Protein backbone atom coordinates (compact mmCIF):
# COMPACT_ATOMS: atom_id res chain seq x y z
CA UNK A 1 0.00 0.00 0.00
CA UNK A 2 1.16 3.47 -0.78
CA UNK A 3 1.48 5.84 2.11
CA UNK A 4 0.89 9.52 1.60
CA UNK A 5 4.15 11.27 0.89
CA UNK A 6 5.19 14.17 3.03
CA UNK A 7 5.63 17.66 1.59
CA UNK A 8 9.27 17.35 2.63
CA UNK A 9 9.81 14.34 0.36
CA UNK A 10 8.12 16.23 -2.43
CA UNK A 11 10.41 19.24 -1.93
CA UNK A 12 13.43 16.98 -1.93
CA UNK A 13 12.45 15.50 -5.30
CA UNK A 14 11.88 18.98 -6.58
CA UNK A 15 15.25 20.43 -5.57
CA UNK A 16 17.08 17.35 -6.69
CA UNK A 17 15.42 17.67 -10.06
CA UNK A 18 16.22 21.40 -10.33
CA UNK A 19 19.81 20.60 -9.34
CA UNK A 20 20.18 18.08 -12.14
CA UNK A 21 18.54 20.39 -14.66
CA UNK A 22 21.30 22.96 -13.98
CA UNK A 23 23.99 20.51 -15.00
CA UNK A 24 25.37 21.08 -18.51
CA UNK A 25 24.55 17.47 -19.40
CA UNK A 26 20.86 18.21 -18.89
CA UNK A 27 20.75 21.05 -21.39
CA UNK A 28 18.65 19.05 -23.86
CA UNK A 29 16.02 18.18 -21.25
CA UNK A 30 16.02 21.72 -19.97
CA UNK A 31 15.46 22.95 -23.50
CA UNK A 32 12.50 20.56 -23.98
CA UNK A 33 10.86 21.84 -20.82
CA UNK A 34 11.45 25.47 -21.78
CA UNK A 35 9.92 25.07 -25.20
CA UNK A 36 6.99 23.12 -23.79
CA UNK A 37 6.26 25.88 -21.30
CA UNK A 38 6.55 28.49 -24.04
CA UNK A 39 4.19 26.58 -26.33
CA UNK A 40 1.71 26.63 -23.49
CA UNK A 41 1.41 30.37 -23.27
CA UNK A 42 -0.52 30.45 -26.55
CA UNK A 43 -4.26 30.03 -26.86
CA UNK A 44 -7.14 31.02 -24.62
CA UNK A 45 -6.98 29.33 -21.25
CA UNK A 46 -10.34 30.56 -20.03
CA UNK A 47 -12.67 27.80 -21.11
CA UNK A 48 -13.47 24.36 -19.79
CA UNK A 49 -12.60 22.69 -23.10
CA UNK A 50 -9.18 24.33 -23.08
CA UNK A 51 -8.52 22.89 -19.62
CA UNK A 52 -9.17 19.33 -20.83
CA UNK A 53 -6.92 19.97 -23.78
CA UNK A 54 -4.22 21.31 -21.47
CA UNK A 55 -4.53 18.13 -19.40
CA UNK A 56 -3.94 15.99 -22.47
CA UNK A 57 -0.94 18.04 -23.55
CA UNK A 58 0.67 17.97 -20.12
CA UNK A 59 0.15 14.21 -19.76
CA UNK A 60 1.65 13.60 -23.18
CA UNK A 61 4.63 15.74 -22.23
CA UNK A 62 5.15 13.82 -18.98
CA UNK A 63 5.15 10.54 -20.91
CA UNK A 64 7.58 11.96 -23.47
CA UNK A 65 9.90 13.20 -20.74
CA UNK A 66 9.77 9.87 -18.95
CA UNK A 67 11.19 8.20 -22.04
CA UNK A 68 13.81 10.93 -22.42
CA UNK A 69 14.89 10.68 -18.79
CA UNK A 70 15.09 6.89 -18.88
CA UNK A 71 17.42 7.10 -21.86
CA UNK A 72 19.43 10.04 -20.56
CA UNK A 73 23.10 9.68 -19.50
CA UNK A 74 22.39 11.65 -16.32
CA UNK A 75 20.11 8.82 -15.23
CA UNK A 76 22.21 5.96 -16.55
CA UNK A 77 21.86 2.96 -14.22
CA UNK A 78 19.20 4.77 -12.23
CA UNK A 79 16.67 2.63 -10.41
CA UNK A 80 12.96 2.92 -11.18
CA UNK A 81 12.57 4.76 -7.93
CA UNK A 82 15.19 7.35 -8.87
CA UNK A 83 13.50 7.88 -12.22
CA UNK A 84 10.22 8.27 -10.38
CA UNK A 85 11.72 10.95 -8.12
CA UNK A 86 12.89 12.84 -11.20
CA UNK A 87 9.42 12.63 -12.73
CA UNK A 88 7.87 13.88 -9.49
CA UNK A 89 10.27 16.81 -9.61
CA UNK A 90 9.32 17.44 -13.21
CA UNK A 91 5.59 17.40 -12.44
CA UNK A 92 6.03 19.88 -9.64
CA UNK A 93 8.25 22.16 -11.72
CA UNK A 94 5.96 22.19 -14.75
CA UNK A 95 2.70 22.53 -12.84
CA UNK A 96 4.03 25.30 -10.63
CA UNK A 97 4.99 27.22 -13.76
CA UNK A 98 1.61 26.55 -15.39
CA UNK A 99 -0.42 26.98 -12.22
CA UNK A 100 -2.05 30.31 -12.97
CA UNK A 101 -3.15 29.17 -16.37
CA UNK A 102 -4.35 25.70 -15.38
CA UNK A 103 -5.84 26.07 -11.91
CA UNK A 104 -9.43 27.26 -11.61
CA UNK A 105 -8.93 29.64 -14.50
CA UNK A 106 -12.20 29.28 -16.40
CA UNK A 107 -15.36 31.19 -15.58
CA UNK A 108 -17.15 27.86 -15.11
CA UNK A 109 -14.61 26.76 -12.50
CA UNK A 110 -14.86 29.98 -10.54
CA UNK A 111 -18.64 29.71 -10.57
CA UNK A 112 -18.64 26.03 -9.55
CA UNK A 113 -16.20 26.72 -6.69
CA UNK A 114 -18.33 29.55 -5.42
CA UNK A 115 -21.58 27.58 -5.61
CA UNK A 116 -20.16 24.62 -3.72
CA UNK A 117 -18.57 26.81 -1.09
CA UNK A 118 -21.83 28.71 -0.58
CA UNK A 119 -23.81 25.51 -0.33
CA UNK A 120 -21.43 24.03 2.20
CA UNK A 121 -21.63 27.28 4.15
CA UNK A 122 -25.38 26.75 4.45
CA UNK A 123 -25.17 23.02 5.21
CA UNK A 124 -22.71 23.74 8.05
CA UNK A 125 -25.57 25.34 9.94
CA UNK A 126 -27.70 22.24 10.31
CA UNK A 127 -26.14 19.00 9.04
CA UNK A 128 -25.27 16.66 11.90
CA UNK A 129 -23.56 13.27 11.95
CA UNK A 130 -26.83 11.35 12.24
CA UNK A 131 -28.16 12.88 9.01
CA UNK A 132 -25.41 11.00 7.19
CA UNK A 133 -25.64 7.69 9.13
CA UNK A 134 -22.47 8.20 11.16
CA UNK A 135 -22.67 5.81 14.14
CA UNK A 136 -22.30 7.43 17.57
CA UNK A 137 -19.20 5.40 18.35
CA UNK A 138 -17.37 7.05 15.44
CA UNK A 139 -18.17 10.62 16.44
CA UNK A 140 -14.80 11.87 17.59
CA UNK A 141 -14.42 15.65 17.44
CA UNK A 142 -10.66 15.53 17.93
CA UNK A 143 -9.97 13.18 15.04
CA UNK A 144 -12.47 15.00 12.85
CA UNK A 145 -10.83 18.35 13.48
CA UNK A 146 -7.48 16.88 12.46
CA UNK A 147 -9.00 15.53 9.25
CA UNK A 148 -10.58 18.93 8.58
CA UNK A 149 -7.19 20.66 8.97
CA UNK A 150 -5.52 18.23 6.58
CA UNK A 151 -8.15 18.84 3.92
CA UNK A 152 -8.01 22.61 4.36
CA UNK A 153 -4.28 22.58 3.56
CA UNK A 154 -5.09 21.74 -0.05
CA UNK A 155 -4.64 25.31 -1.28
CA UNK A 156 -1.26 25.71 0.38
CA UNK A 157 0.25 23.64 -2.41
CA UNK A 158 0.54 24.15 -6.14
CA UNK A 159 1.55 20.73 -7.39
CA UNK A 160 -1.04 18.04 -8.06
CA UNK A 161 0.96 15.55 -6.02
CA UNK A 162 1.08 17.78 -2.94
CA UNK A 163 -2.62 18.56 -3.20
CA UNK A 164 -3.36 14.86 -3.46
CA UNK A 165 -1.24 14.27 -0.38
CA UNK A 166 -3.58 16.56 1.60
CA UNK A 167 -6.54 14.43 0.54
CA UNK A 168 -4.71 11.22 1.39
CA UNK A 169 -3.71 12.56 4.81
CA UNK A 170 -7.30 13.53 5.53
CA UNK A 171 -8.47 10.03 4.55
CA UNK A 172 -5.72 8.48 6.63
CA UNK A 173 -6.90 10.34 9.73
CA UNK A 174 -10.40 8.94 9.12
CA UNK A 175 -9.03 5.43 8.57
CA UNK A 176 -6.97 5.63 11.75
CA UNK A 177 -10.10 6.64 13.64
CA UNK A 178 -12.00 3.67 12.19
CA UNK A 179 -9.10 1.38 13.06
CA UNK A 180 -8.80 2.66 16.64
CA UNK A 181 -12.52 2.36 17.23
CA UNK A 182 -12.58 -1.18 15.86
CA UNK A 183 -9.67 -2.21 18.07
CA UNK A 184 -10.87 -0.60 21.29
CA UNK A 185 -14.49 -1.68 20.90
CA UNK A 186 -13.87 -5.12 19.50
CA UNK A 187 -15.88 -4.09 16.49
CA UNK A 188 -15.34 -5.13 12.88
CA UNK A 189 -13.20 -2.66 10.96
CA UNK A 190 -15.60 -0.44 9.04
CA UNK A 191 -15.69 -0.22 5.30
CA UNK A 192 -17.17 2.39 3.01
CA UNK A 193 -20.52 2.33 4.87
CA UNK A 194 -18.76 4.33 7.59
CA UNK A 195 -15.87 5.90 5.71
CA UNK A 196 -17.80 7.85 3.08
CA UNK A 197 -20.31 9.44 5.50
CA UNK A 198 -17.44 10.68 7.67
CA UNK A 199 -15.55 12.04 4.67
CA UNK A 200 -18.67 13.92 3.53
CA UNK A 201 -19.13 15.33 7.00
CA UNK A 202 -15.46 16.36 7.17
CA UNK A 203 -15.78 18.02 3.76
CA UNK A 204 -18.77 20.01 4.96
CA UNK A 205 -16.93 21.03 8.12
CA UNK A 206 -13.76 21.94 6.25
CA UNK A 207 -15.39 23.73 3.33
CA UNK A 208 -12.04 23.32 1.56
CA UNK A 209 -11.23 26.30 -0.66
CA UNK A 210 -11.92 25.83 -4.39
CA UNK A 211 -12.94 22.21 -3.95
CA UNK A 212 -14.10 21.79 -7.53
CA UNK A 213 -10.97 23.34 -9.06
CA UNK A 214 -8.66 21.35 -6.82
CA UNK A 215 -10.27 18.05 -7.75
CA UNK A 216 -10.26 18.92 -11.44
CA UNK A 217 -6.64 20.04 -11.31
CA UNK A 218 -5.54 16.76 -9.71
CA UNK A 219 -7.55 14.68 -12.17
CA UNK A 220 -6.13 16.50 -15.17
CA UNK A 221 -2.53 17.07 -14.14
CA UNK A 222 -1.44 14.40 -11.68
CA UNK A 223 0.76 11.96 -13.62
CA UNK A 224 -1.62 9.36 -14.99
CA UNK A 225 0.56 6.44 -13.90
CA UNK A 226 0.27 7.67 -10.30
CA UNK A 227 -3.47 8.19 -10.25
CA UNK A 228 -4.32 4.52 -9.80
CA UNK A 229 -5.28 2.02 -7.18
CA UNK A 230 -5.55 3.28 -3.61
CA UNK A 231 -4.89 6.93 -4.47
CA UNK A 232 -7.55 6.80 -7.17
CA UNK A 233 -9.98 5.23 -4.72
CA UNK A 234 -9.59 7.96 -2.13
CA UNK A 235 -9.71 10.71 -4.74
CA UNK A 236 -12.94 9.15 -6.04
CA UNK A 237 -14.34 9.32 -2.52
CA UNK A 238 -13.75 13.05 -2.32
CA UNK A 239 -15.24 13.52 -5.79
CA UNK A 240 -18.23 11.56 -4.58
CA UNK A 241 -18.46 13.73 -1.45
CA UNK A 242 -18.54 16.76 -3.73
CA UNK A 243 -21.30 15.16 -5.84
CA UNK A 244 -23.33 14.40 -2.74
CA UNK A 245 -23.05 17.99 -1.58
CA UNK A 246 -23.97 19.42 -4.99
CA UNK A 247 -27.10 17.25 -5.22
CA UNK A 248 -28.06 17.26 -1.55
CA UNK A 249 -31.78 17.47 -0.78
CA UNK A 250 -34.20 16.53 1.97
CA UNK A 251 -34.21 12.88 1.00
CA UNK A 252 -30.44 12.53 1.10
CA UNK A 253 -30.46 13.83 4.69
CA UNK A 254 -33.56 11.83 5.77
CA UNK A 255 -35.76 14.86 6.27
CA UNK A 256 -38.86 16.23 4.64
CA UNK A 257 -37.99 18.39 1.66
CA UNK A 258 -39.90 21.29 3.27
CA UNK A 259 -37.84 20.96 6.45
CA UNK A 260 -34.65 20.86 4.40
CA UNK A 261 -35.68 24.01 2.54
CA UNK A 262 -36.56 25.70 5.82
CA UNK A 263 -33.10 24.83 7.17
CA UNK A 264 -31.45 26.24 4.06
CA UNK A 265 -33.58 29.37 4.27
CA UNK A 266 -32.81 29.92 7.93
CA UNK A 267 -29.10 29.35 7.24
CA UNK A 268 -29.30 32.01 4.52
CA UNK A 269 -30.98 34.40 6.92
CA UNK A 270 -28.37 33.79 9.61
CA UNK A 271 -25.63 34.47 7.10
CA UNK A 272 -27.47 37.64 6.06
CA UNK A 273 -27.42 38.89 9.60
CA UNK A 274 -23.77 38.02 10.14
CA UNK A 275 -22.85 39.63 6.84
CA UNK A 276 -24.73 42.77 7.79
CA UNK A 277 -23.09 42.99 11.20
CA UNK A 278 -19.52 42.27 10.11
CA UNK A 279 -19.71 43.84 6.70
CA UNK A 280 -16.04 44.31 5.83
CA UNK A 281 -14.21 41.67 7.82
CA UNK A 282 -15.37 38.61 5.88
CA UNK A 283 -13.15 36.29 3.93
CA UNK A 284 -14.15 34.62 0.70
CA UNK A 285 -16.24 31.73 2.00
CA UNK A 286 -19.48 32.70 3.64
CA UNK A 287 -19.46 36.39 2.77
CA UNK A 288 -21.05 35.70 -0.59
CA UNK A 289 -23.61 33.40 0.93
CA UNK A 290 -27.11 34.74 0.97
CA UNK A 291 -26.32 37.96 -0.80
CA UNK A 292 -26.71 36.45 -4.26
CA UNK A 293 -30.50 36.47 -4.11
CA UNK A 294 -30.85 40.14 -3.43
CA UNK A 295 -27.61 41.56 -4.72
CA UNK A 296 -27.91 45.24 -5.37
CA UNK A 297 -30.36 45.71 -2.53
CA UNK A 298 -28.89 48.44 -0.32
CA UNK A 299 -28.89 47.66 3.41
CA UNK A 300 -31.49 50.31 4.27
CA UNK A 301 -34.12 48.95 1.91
CA UNK A 302 -34.15 45.51 3.48
CA UNK A 303 -36.71 46.45 6.11
CA UNK A 304 -39.01 48.99 4.48
CA UNK A 305 -41.90 50.68 6.37
CA UNK A 306 -40.16 50.31 9.73
CA UNK A 307 -40.02 54.06 10.17
CA UNK A 308 -43.18 54.91 8.23
CA UNK A 309 -46.27 56.53 9.80
CA UNK A 310 -49.35 54.34 9.38
CA UNK A 311 -51.51 57.28 8.19
CA UNK A 312 -49.10 58.22 5.43
CA UNK A 313 -49.14 54.85 3.64
CA UNK A 314 -50.63 54.77 0.17
CA UNK A 315 -52.91 51.86 -0.92
CA UNK A 316 -50.08 50.56 -3.12
CA UNK A 317 -47.74 50.54 -0.12
CA UNK A 318 -50.34 48.71 1.97
CA UNK A 319 -50.56 46.12 -0.78
CA UNK A 320 -46.78 45.81 -0.82
CA UNK A 321 -46.70 45.53 2.95
CA UNK A 322 -49.35 42.81 2.87
CA UNK A 323 -47.17 40.84 0.46
CA UNK A 324 -44.19 41.28 2.78
CA UNK A 325 -46.33 40.19 5.71
CA UNK A 326 -47.18 36.96 3.88
CA UNK A 327 -43.51 36.30 3.26
CA UNK A 328 -42.56 37.00 6.84
CA UNK A 329 -45.24 34.68 8.20
CA UNK A 330 -44.20 31.90 5.84
CA UNK A 331 -40.57 32.25 6.76
CA UNK A 332 -41.38 32.46 10.46
CA UNK A 333 -43.48 29.29 10.32
CA UNK A 334 -40.74 27.40 8.52
CA UNK A 335 -38.10 28.67 10.90
CA UNK A 336 -39.93 27.72 14.05
CA UNK A 337 -40.71 24.33 12.58
CA UNK A 338 -37.01 23.85 11.87
CA UNK A 339 -36.00 25.12 15.30
CA UNK A 340 -38.40 22.74 17.01
CA UNK A 341 -36.73 19.91 15.15
CA UNK A 342 -33.33 21.25 16.12
CA UNK A 343 -34.05 21.42 19.82
CA UNK A 344 -35.05 17.78 19.92
CA UNK A 345 -31.54 16.99 18.90
CA UNK A 346 -28.68 17.22 21.34
CA UNK A 347 -25.82 16.92 18.89
CA UNK A 348 -23.41 19.79 18.56
CA UNK A 349 -24.13 21.94 15.53
CA UNK A 350 -21.44 21.67 12.90
CA UNK A 351 -20.20 25.22 12.84
CA UNK A 352 -19.78 25.53 16.59
CA UNK A 353 -16.81 23.20 16.41
CA UNK A 354 -15.24 25.16 13.63
CA UNK A 355 -15.30 28.48 15.42
CA UNK B 1 -21.91 -4.63 11.41
CA UNK B 2 -22.64 -8.25 11.64
CA UNK B 3 -19.48 -10.27 11.31
CA UNK B 4 -17.30 -11.85 13.89
CA UNK B 5 -14.34 -9.87 15.06
CA UNK B 6 -12.48 -12.80 16.53
CA UNK B 7 -10.90 -14.12 13.40
CA UNK B 8 -9.09 -17.45 13.41
CA UNK B 9 -5.33 -17.21 13.08
CA UNK B 10 -4.85 -18.80 9.72
CA UNK B 11 -6.77 -18.99 6.54
CA UNK B 12 -6.40 -22.00 4.31
CA UNK B 13 -6.28 -21.53 0.58
CA UNK B 14 -4.01 -20.49 -2.22
CA UNK B 15 -3.56 -16.88 -1.25
CA UNK B 16 -0.22 -15.53 -2.28
CA UNK B 17 1.37 -12.32 -1.23
CA UNK B 18 2.95 -11.32 -4.45
CA UNK B 19 2.98 -7.62 -5.04
CA UNK B 20 3.71 -6.68 -8.56
CA UNK B 21 2.89 -3.07 -9.33
CA UNK B 22 3.47 -3.07 -13.06
CA UNK B 23 1.42 -6.06 -13.96
CA UNK B 24 -1.51 -4.52 -15.79
CA UNK B 25 -0.49 -5.75 -19.22
CA UNK B 26 1.37 -8.89 -18.20
CA UNK B 27 -0.79 -11.91 -19.10
CA UNK B 28 0.66 -13.89 -16.20
CA UNK B 29 0.10 -11.14 -13.64
CA UNK B 30 -3.34 -9.65 -13.95
CA UNK B 31 -4.59 -6.64 -12.09
CA UNK B 32 -8.30 -6.07 -11.68
CA UNK B 33 -10.47 -3.43 -10.11
CA UNK B 34 -13.29 -5.09 -8.21
CA UNK B 35 -16.22 -3.13 -6.83
CA UNK B 36 -18.37 -4.23 -3.90
CA UNK B 37 -22.05 -3.34 -3.92
CA UNK B 38 -24.83 -4.16 -1.49
CA UNK B 39 -26.98 -2.81 1.29
CA UNK B 40 -25.24 -1.53 4.41
CA UNK B 41 -24.88 -4.21 7.03
CA UNK B 42 -24.76 -7.21 4.70
CA UNK B 43 -21.08 -7.72 5.49
CA UNK B 44 -19.36 -6.38 2.37
CA UNK B 45 -16.27 -5.31 4.22
CA UNK B 46 -16.23 -8.48 6.33
CA UNK B 47 -15.92 -10.55 3.19
CA UNK B 48 -12.96 -8.53 1.99
CA UNK B 49 -11.23 -8.45 5.36
CA UNK B 50 -11.59 -12.20 5.46
CA UNK B 51 -10.03 -12.50 2.04
CA UNK B 52 -7.05 -10.19 2.59
CA UNK B 53 -6.42 -10.92 6.24
CA UNK B 54 -3.11 -12.63 5.61
CA UNK B 55 -1.77 -9.36 4.29
CA UNK B 56 -3.61 -7.11 6.67
CA UNK B 57 -1.48 -5.64 9.42
CA UNK B 58 -3.42 -3.47 11.89
CA UNK B 59 -0.22 -1.89 13.27
CA UNK B 60 0.92 -0.69 9.87
CA UNK B 61 1.38 3.06 9.55
CA UNK B 62 0.24 3.35 5.95
CA UNK B 63 -3.34 4.08 4.99
CA UNK B 64 -5.17 1.17 6.49
CA UNK B 65 -8.84 1.02 5.87
CA UNK B 66 -11.30 -1.64 5.00
CA UNK B 67 -12.75 0.55 2.24
CA UNK B 68 -9.89 -0.08 -0.14
CA UNK B 69 -7.86 -3.26 0.07
CA UNK B 70 -5.78 -5.22 -2.34
CA UNK B 71 -4.83 -8.84 -2.37
CA UNK B 72 -3.01 -11.02 -4.83
CA UNK B 73 -4.25 -14.50 -5.55
CA UNK B 74 -2.02 -17.16 -7.09
CA UNK B 75 -3.89 -19.56 -9.34
CA UNK B 76 -2.96 -23.13 -10.20
CA UNK B 77 -1.97 -22.22 -13.75
CA UNK B 78 0.76 -19.97 -12.22
CA UNK B 79 -1.08 -16.79 -13.08
CA UNK B 80 -1.49 -14.24 -10.35
CA UNK B 81 -4.42 -11.89 -10.03
CA UNK B 82 -4.10 -8.74 -8.00
CA UNK B 83 -7.52 -7.63 -6.80
CA UNK B 84 -7.93 -3.97 -6.02
CA UNK B 85 -11.14 -3.97 -4.04
CA UNK B 86 -13.28 -0.82 -3.94
CA UNK B 87 -15.97 -0.80 -1.30
CA UNK B 88 -19.04 1.41 -1.69
CA UNK B 89 -21.36 2.89 0.91
CA UNK B 90 -24.53 0.80 0.91
CA UNK B 91 -26.98 3.28 2.44
CA UNK B 92 -29.79 4.42 0.18
CA UNK B 93 -28.72 8.08 0.34
CA UNK B 94 -25.40 7.24 -1.29
CA UNK B 95 -26.77 5.01 -4.06
CA UNK B 96 -26.52 7.74 -6.70
CA UNK B 97 -22.75 7.94 -6.18
CA UNK B 98 -22.07 4.30 -7.08
CA UNK B 99 -21.34 4.93 -10.79
CA UNK B 100 -18.23 6.89 -9.76
CA UNK B 101 -16.94 3.69 -8.17
CA UNK B 102 -17.92 0.97 -10.64
CA UNK B 103 -16.71 2.89 -13.67
CA UNK B 104 -13.84 0.94 -15.18
CA UNK B 105 -14.25 -2.04 -12.84
CA UNK B 106 -13.42 -5.46 -14.30
CA UNK B 107 -15.42 -7.31 -11.67
CA UNK B 108 -18.26 -6.67 -9.27
CA UNK B 109 -19.48 -8.54 -6.20
CA UNK B 110 -23.11 -7.86 -5.32
CA UNK B 111 -23.74 -8.90 -1.74
CA UNK B 112 -26.95 -9.56 0.17
CA UNK B 113 -27.72 -11.09 3.54
CA UNK B 114 -29.56 -14.45 3.34
CA UNK B 115 -31.65 -13.47 6.36
CA UNK B 116 -32.84 -10.22 4.78
CA UNK B 117 -35.22 -10.19 1.79
CA UNK B 118 -34.83 -6.40 1.53
CA UNK B 119 -31.12 -6.80 0.99
CA UNK B 120 -31.85 -9.34 -1.76
CA UNK B 121 -34.16 -6.80 -3.45
CA UNK B 122 -31.41 -4.24 -3.16
CA UNK B 123 -28.95 -6.68 -4.72
CA UNK B 124 -31.26 -7.08 -7.71
CA UNK B 125 -31.37 -3.31 -8.03
CA UNK B 126 -27.56 -3.23 -8.20
CA UNK B 127 -27.48 -6.02 -10.78
CA UNK B 128 -29.84 -4.05 -13.03
CA UNK B 129 -27.82 -0.91 -12.47
CA UNK B 130 -24.59 -2.66 -13.45
CA UNK B 131 -26.21 -4.19 -16.52
CA UNK B 132 -27.38 -0.77 -17.63
CA UNK B 133 -24.33 1.34 -16.81
CA UNK B 134 -21.42 -0.97 -16.06
CA UNK B 135 -18.83 -2.19 -18.49
CA UNK B 136 -20.43 -4.98 -20.63
CA UNK B 137 -17.59 -7.46 -20.05
CA UNK B 138 -17.59 -7.00 -16.27
CA UNK B 139 -17.52 -10.27 -14.31
CA UNK B 140 -20.39 -10.22 -11.83
CA UNK B 141 -20.89 -12.39 -8.78
CA UNK B 142 -24.00 -12.59 -6.63
CA UNK B 143 -23.12 -13.39 -3.04
CA UNK B 144 -25.49 -14.45 -0.28
CA UNK B 145 -23.56 -13.70 2.90
CA UNK B 146 -24.17 -14.80 6.50
CA UNK B 147 -24.68 -18.40 5.43
CA UNK B 148 -23.88 -19.35 9.03
CA UNK B 149 -27.29 -17.95 10.00
CA UNK B 150 -29.12 -20.65 8.06
CA UNK B 151 -31.79 -20.97 10.77
CA UNK B 152 -32.94 -17.43 10.04
CA UNK B 153 -32.73 -17.77 6.30
CA UNK B 154 -35.38 -15.92 4.33
CA UNK B 155 -33.85 -15.96 0.83
CA UNK B 156 -33.71 -19.47 -0.58
CA UNK B 157 -30.54 -20.58 -2.34
CA UNK B 158 -32.62 -21.81 -5.24
CA UNK B 159 -34.27 -18.42 -5.85
CA UNK B 160 -30.92 -16.69 -5.78
CA UNK B 161 -29.29 -19.31 -7.97
CA UNK B 162 -32.06 -18.99 -10.56
CA UNK B 163 -31.87 -15.23 -10.49
CA UNK B 164 -28.10 -15.36 -10.96
CA UNK B 165 -28.40 -17.76 -13.90
CA UNK B 166 -30.99 -15.58 -15.62
CA UNK B 167 -28.55 -12.72 -15.35
CA UNK B 168 -25.44 -14.68 -16.35
CA UNK B 169 -23.85 -14.22 -12.98
CA UNK B 170 -21.88 -16.50 -10.79
CA UNK B 171 -23.64 -17.29 -7.49
CA UNK B 172 -22.20 -18.41 -4.17
CA UNK B 173 -23.20 -18.31 -0.52
CA UNK B 174 -20.51 -17.26 1.93
CA UNK B 175 -19.95 -16.75 5.58
CA UNK B 176 -17.46 -14.08 6.47
CA UNK B 177 -17.80 -15.29 10.03
CA UNK B 178 -16.67 -18.86 9.42
CA UNK B 179 -14.68 -18.03 6.25
CA UNK B 180 -16.82 -20.48 4.27
CA UNK B 181 -16.48 -20.04 0.52
CA UNK B 182 -14.59 -16.74 0.79
CA UNK B 183 -11.53 -17.87 -1.11
CA UNK B 184 -13.66 -19.85 -3.52
CA UNK B 185 -15.52 -16.67 -4.36
CA UNK B 186 -12.37 -14.78 -5.34
CA UNK B 187 -10.80 -17.78 -7.05
CA UNK B 188 -13.88 -18.22 -9.20
CA UNK B 189 -13.82 -14.55 -10.20
CA UNK B 190 -10.11 -14.80 -10.98
CA UNK B 191 -10.70 -17.79 -13.23
CA UNK B 192 -13.44 -16.02 -15.14
CA UNK B 193 -11.43 -12.89 -15.85
CA UNK B 194 -10.62 -12.42 -19.50
CA UNK B 195 -6.94 -13.12 -20.17
CA UNK B 196 -5.17 -10.54 -22.28
CA UNK B 197 -4.07 -12.10 -25.54
CA UNK B 198 -0.29 -12.01 -25.85
CA UNK B 199 0.62 -9.71 -28.70
From TrEMBL, chain A:
It comes from the Eukaryota. PROSITE patterns: VPS9. One of its GO terms (molecular function) is small GTPase binding. GO terms for biological process: vesicle-mediated transport. Residues 278-292 have a biased composition (Polar residues). InterPro entries: DUF5601 (IPR041545), VPS9 (IPR003123), Vps9-like (IPR045046), VPS9_dom_sf (IPR037191). One of its GO terms (cellular component) is cytosol. Residues 278-297 are annotated as: Disordered. Residues 110-254 form the VPS9 domain. Pfam families: DUF5601, VPS9. This is VPS9 domain-containing protein. It comes from Leersia perrieri. The lineage of its organism: Eukaryota, Viridiplantae, Streptophyta, Embryophyta, Tracheophyta.
TrEMBL record, chain B:
This is Uncharacterized protein. Keywords: Nucleotide-binding. One of its GO terms (molecular function) is GTPase activity. SMART domains: RAB, RAS, RHO. PANTHER family: PTHR47978.
Amino acid sequence: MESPTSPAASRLDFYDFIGRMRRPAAADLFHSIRSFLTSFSHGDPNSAAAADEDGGKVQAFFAEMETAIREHPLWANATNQEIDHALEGLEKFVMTKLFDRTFGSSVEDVKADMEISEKIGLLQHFVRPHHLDIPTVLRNEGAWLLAVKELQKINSFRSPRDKLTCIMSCCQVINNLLLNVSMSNDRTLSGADDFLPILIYITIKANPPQLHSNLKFIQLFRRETKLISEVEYYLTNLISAKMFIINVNGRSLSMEESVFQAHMESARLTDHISVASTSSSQGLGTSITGLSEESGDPEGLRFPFMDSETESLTPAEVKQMHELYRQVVTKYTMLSKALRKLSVDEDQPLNSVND
Amino acid sequence: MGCSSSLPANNAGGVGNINNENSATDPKNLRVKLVLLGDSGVGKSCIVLRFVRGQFDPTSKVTVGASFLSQTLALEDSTTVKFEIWDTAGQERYAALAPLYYRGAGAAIVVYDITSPESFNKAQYWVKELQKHGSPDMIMALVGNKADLNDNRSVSSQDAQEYAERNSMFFIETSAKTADNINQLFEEIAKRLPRPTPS
